[in-house]
Write a structure and sequence with these properties.
Elements lengths: L1 E2 L5 E4 L4 E4 L4 H4 L2 H5 L5 H18 L1 H4 L31 H37 L1 H15 L3 H12 L3 H27 L3 H8 L4 H13 L1 H23 L11 H8 L8 H28 L5
Antiparallel strand pairs: 1-2, 2-3
Helix pairs in contact: 3-5, 3-13, 5-6, 5-8, 5-11, 6-8, 7-8, 8-10, 8-11, 9-10, 11-12, 11-13, 12-13
Length: about 300
C-alpha cells in the first residue's frame, strides 16, 4: 500500500514495515551544513562584494549629487579631484556618477535577464527528462540547433535584428540562454525520476504535474541555481559587450559597455575612462562567481 501524501511511505501489508520515501529525508543530513552557511568563506566574500556593489547602485542618488547625463563642456577630461572623485569624461560628465548609475542599469538587466532562460529552460528540461519519447526528442533537437551557434554571435545577431534596448536584450538572452538550464534539469530529472519516492507518487495516482512540481523540481533545482550565479556574470558581460558595440542600452543612459566604448578614443591620455568601468565589471563578476562557488560547496552532497 502506497500513501505518498502521508509522508511518502510504502507499506507492506501484513508485515508492519514501512519504507520511508519522503524526498525531504535526503536533505536532512545536509541541514546542519546549510544552517552554517555563514561559515563558507567563498559564499560570504561573494555576498559582501555583491551587496556593496548593489547597495552603491541602489543608493547612487545619495552618494553623488551629479546628473549622470548632464554635460559640462567647461570641465571636459578633468583628472580626479575633490569635486570629481574619478574625473570627468570628454563631455564633462562625472565618471563616478556614471559608474554608479551604469551599475544600476547593468545589474538590473543582468539579474532580470537570467530569470527568463532559467524558467524556460527549467520547464522544458523537466518535460524532456520526465516524459522522454517524442517530447524529449523535439526539445533536445531545439537545444542542438541553438548550441550550434556561438553564444555571442547569435546574441549580437538577434539584438541587431530586434534593435537596441532592454526588451531586445531580454529576448535575445532568453533565446540563447535557456539551453544550459534545460540540459542541467533534464539530466537531473532522468536520475531522480527513478528514485523510490517518485515511483511511489506515480503508483499513488498523483498527476504528472504534481509529481514534477512537488517531488522532482525541489530536489533537482539546486544545480540550476548555482549555475545561475555564473550565468548572471555572463549576462552582464553580454550586456557590456552589446553596449560596447552600440547595440545595448541607447545613449545617453549611463552603462558600463558604452563607457568603455566612449573612453577608448582617449586610452593613451585618459586610460581611466575605459579601465574604471572594466574594473567594475571584474568586481561584479568576482562577487557573483564566489557566490556560485560557495553555493556549490554548500549544496554538494556528502560535504561537511
Amino acid at each position: 500500500m502506497i500513501d505518498p501524501e502521508a509522508g511518502g511511505q510504502l507499506f507492506a501489508p501484513g508485515s508492519g514495515l514501512a519504507v520511508e520515501l519522503d524526498p525531504r529525508s535526503a536533505d536532512r543530513s545536509a541541514q546542519p551544513r546549510r544552517r552554517n552557511w555563514y561559515r563558507q568563506p567563498a559564499l560570504m566574500a561573494g555576498l559582501v562584494i555583491t551587496a556593496i556593489v548593489i547597495g552603491m547602485a541602489i543608493f547612487a542618488p545619495l552618494i553623488t549629487s551629479y546628473n549622470p547625463i548632464a554635460q559640462n563642456l567647461n570641465d571636459t577630461l578633468q583628472g580626479p579631484s575633490a569635486a570629481h572623485w574619478l574625473g570627468t569624461d570628454e563631455l564633462g560628465r562625472d565618471i563616478w556618477t556614471r559608474l554608479l548609475y551604469g551599475g544600476r542599469v547593468d545589474l538590473r538587466v543582468g539579474f532580470i535577464a537570467v530569470l527568463f532562460p532559467f524558467c524556460l529552460g527549467t520547464i522544458l528540461g523537466s518535460l524532456a527528462g520526465y516524459f522522454g519519447g517524442w517530447v524529449e526528442l523535439v526539445i533536445m533537437r531545439l537545444v542542438d540547433v541553438v548550441v550550434a551557434f556561438p553564444f555571442y554571435v547569435l546574441l549580437i545577431a538577434l539584438v541587431f535584428v530586434l534593435g537596441p534596448g532592454e526588451r531586445s536584450i531580454y529576448i535575445a538572452i532568453t533565446v540563447v540562454g535557456w539551453v544550459s538550464y534545460a540540459r542541467l534539469v533534464r539530466a537531473e530529472i532522468l536520475v531522480a525520476k527513478r528514485q523510490e519516492y517518485v515511483l511511489a507518487a506515480q503508483a499513488g495516482g498523483l498527476s504528472n504535474l504534481r509529481i514534477m512540481g512537488r517531488h522532482l523540481l525541489p530536489n533537482v533545482i539546486s544545480q540550476s541555481i548555482v549555475y545561475a550565479m555564473s550565468d548572471i556574470v555572463q549576462d552582464i558581460l553580454a550586456i557590456v559587450t552589446l553596449g560596447y558595440f552600440g547595440l545595448g542600452i541607447p545613449p545617453p543612459t549611463a552603462e558600463w559597455g558604452s563607457m568603455i566604448n566612449e573612453g577608448q578614443n582617449f586610452l593613451s591620455t585618459h586610460w581611466e575612462l575605459t579601465t574604471i568601468p572594466g574594473i567594475a565589471v571584474v568586481i561584479v563578476g568576482l562577487g557573483l562567481s564566489l557566490i556560485g562557488d560557495g553555493l556549490a560547496d554548500l549544496l554538494r552532497p556528502g560535504q561537511s
